[in-house]
Design goal:
alpha/beta; binds nicotinamide-adenine-dinucleotide; about 500 residues; Aldehyde Dehydrogenase, Chain A, domain 1; oxidoreductase; Aldehyde Dehydrogenase, Chain A, domain 2; 22 strands; oxidoreductase activity; 7-stranded mixed beta sheet; NAD; 16 helices; 6-stranded mixed beta sheet
């Protein structure tokens, strides 16, 4: 049982709360910690710590801030085993997957080390006689981040390293289901020399989130989670004139063309649909097959592989798929499968009754595969967030694109083909934010930004990478003239136009 879960404010671990709630190990179904839900007073404390820390941190030279990030990156590498064990304990994903998550998070820290280069601004000399003009990028102040359970270490690392490198102070509200890895990571950041009040953590649910958004100190809100909550948070922030980026849910389609290499597609779909038990916002949950013979062949190849999936606790390196995050979420996935059967989808592999010897109380499911799914079915329309892959049959690439474009979500998608023209046509016309061509999980590297279209993202800028530097700073444009022989005498009432001087 982890007794050390608390709020981290000014580097101090606090346990003050209105209530506590249990955290479960999803592989065993047993409680492994108690989470304090912050009282209003604790949230006030975090706001005040972040506010106080901000001015001197904002005035710290960016290159000095970067030194902290370099040291932090080294600590992450040194302590990666411990971090991944904490991820697996509370989330359930297999250790190799936890390592992959952390590696992608570390890439964001490496990117943040180079942010001084991106804060340089833009300069124009002599925009008028003896007049120079420039734009610079100043920090916002206190910013907050609210993160989901499915990448407990990586998603916070999408946010706060960029935010603090831009000179802001940060309050993180992590998922209540698996907070321990991120708490450990924040302690490492403090150990690396980050001033303690610059990065604080509070735990809680809707009340804590609303108090943070509404606080006068808070200038911007980053959110990643499900779409209804993303939309509500975006609206609440926008109504108060606050900058917000809110990344939401997904339904990611993979188009399989008749010329695709089916062995490659099968392997790619196994990882993309069932990795992390389907609990990734970029998970492929729909295979769109172009031509019936493609669907038949793909299902023939996928079926034995899904039946043979090694399901069990993430701590056992031989397992390929761990448990679902909670008992409730497991039941929700089963309900979606039941409803799809009722609505006429053809169940090819049924993962509902999977049990793991010695882990009978764990929240395990096997992989599920459906054929003949149609756009009216609930299992097609909703984000299931579990190990379920459905096949939708179409006859042409144009029909596949139309299907994807009509879906309310637009996070990720991919096409499998050997035809460059088809790949290019697809990426030009599909209304989705991140596109793979023979790449099933096209998660952009840290120096490109991440974000979906349609109801997968509310806001203008994407997460991490160059967009994050724009999100966490505001532009100031300065025009400067020093008295000199070129200055015109007298008052000028016309709108300034330097070209006529
Ligand atoms: P969630 O929306 O339930 O929770 C996300 C965060 O919001 C948590 O910190 C939670 O405590 C908080 N929260 C919960 N209810 C709230 C409310 N009513 N008001 C304010 N805050 C609230 O999401 P989850 O189950 O933790 O994560 C899974 C979801 O996140 C999926 O929909 C997945 O697609 C999405 N996700 C999206 C991306 C992306 O980049 N688009 C990345 C990861 C996860």
């Amino acid at each position: 049982m982890n007794q050390g879960i608390g709020h981290l404010i000014n580097g101090e671990l606090l346990h003050d709360s209105v209530t506590t709630q249990p955290i479960y190990n999803p592989a065993t179904g047993k409680e492994c910690g108690q989470l304090p839900m912050a009282s209003r007073a604790v949230v006030e404390q975090a706001l005040s710590a972040a506010k106080q820390a901000y001015p001197s941190w904002a005035a710290t030279p960016p290159s000095a801030r970067a030194q902290v990030m370099y040291r932090f990156k080294e600590l992450l590498v040194q302590h990666q085993d411990k971090i991944c064990q904490l991820i697996t304990l509370e989330h359930g994903k297999v250790l190799s997957d936890a390592k992959g998550e952390l590696a992608r998070g570390i890439e964001n820290v490496e990117y943040a080390c180079g942010i001084p280069e991106l804060l340089k601004g833009e300069h124009s000399r002599q925009v008028g006689t003896n007049i120079d003009a420039w734009s610079e990028f100043q920090p916002l102040g206190v910013v907050v981040g609210i993160t989901p359970f499915n990448f407990p270490a990586m998603v916070p690392l999408w946010m706060w390293p960029s935010a603090v490198m831009c000179g802001n102070s940060f309050i993180l509200k992590p998922s209540e289901r698996d907070p321990s890895s991120v708490l450990y990571i924040v302690e490492l950041a403090h150990q690396a020399g980050l001033p303690k009040g610059v990065l604080n953590v509070v735990h809680g649910g809707v009340d804590v989130v609303n108090q943070l958004i509404d606080a006068a100190e808070v200038q911007a809100v980053s959110f990643v989670g499900s779409t209804p909550i993303a939309e509500a948070i975006y609206q609440r922030s926008a109504q108060q004139g606050k900058r917000c980026q809110a990344l939401g849910g997904a339904k990611n389609h993979a188009v399989v063309m008749p010329d695709a290499d089916l062995d490659m597609v099968t392997n790619a779909l196994m990882g993309a649909a069932f990795g992390s038990c389907g609990q990734r916002c970029m998970a492929i949950s729909v295979a769109v097959t172009v031509g019936d013979h493609v669907a038949d062949a793909l299902i023939r190849q996928l079926t034995p592989k899904i039946e043979a999936l090694q399901v069990g606790p993430g701590t056992d390196e031989s397992n390929e798929m761990g448990p679902i995050i909670t008992a409730d979420q497991k039941q929700k996935v089963i309900d979606y499968i039941d409803e799809a059967c009722t609505q006429g989808a053809s169940l090819r592999v049924d993962g509902r009754t999977k049990t793991v010897p010695d882990y009978e109380s764990g929240y395990f499911l096997g992989g599920t595969l459906f054929d003949n799914v149609t756009p009216e079915m609930t299992i097609y329309q909703q984000e299931v967030f579990g190990p379920v892959l459905v096949v939708v049959r179409v006859n042409t690439l144009e029909q596949a694109i139309e299907l994807i474009n009509q879906h309310e979500y637009g996070n990720g998608t991919c096409i499998f083909t050997r035809d460059g023209e088809a790949g290019r046509f697809f990426s030009n016309h599909v209304m989705v934010g991140m596109v793979g061509i023979n790449v099933p999980l096209p998660v952009p590297v840290s120096y490109h930004s991440f974000g979906g279209w349609k109801r997968s993202l509310f806001g203008d800028l994407h997460a991490y990478g160059p967009d994050s530097v724009r999100f966490y700073t505001r532009r100031k444009a300065i025009t400067q003239r020093w008295p000199s022989r070129g200055v015109k005498d007298g008052t000028q009432f016309s709108f300034p136009s330097y070209s006529e001087e």
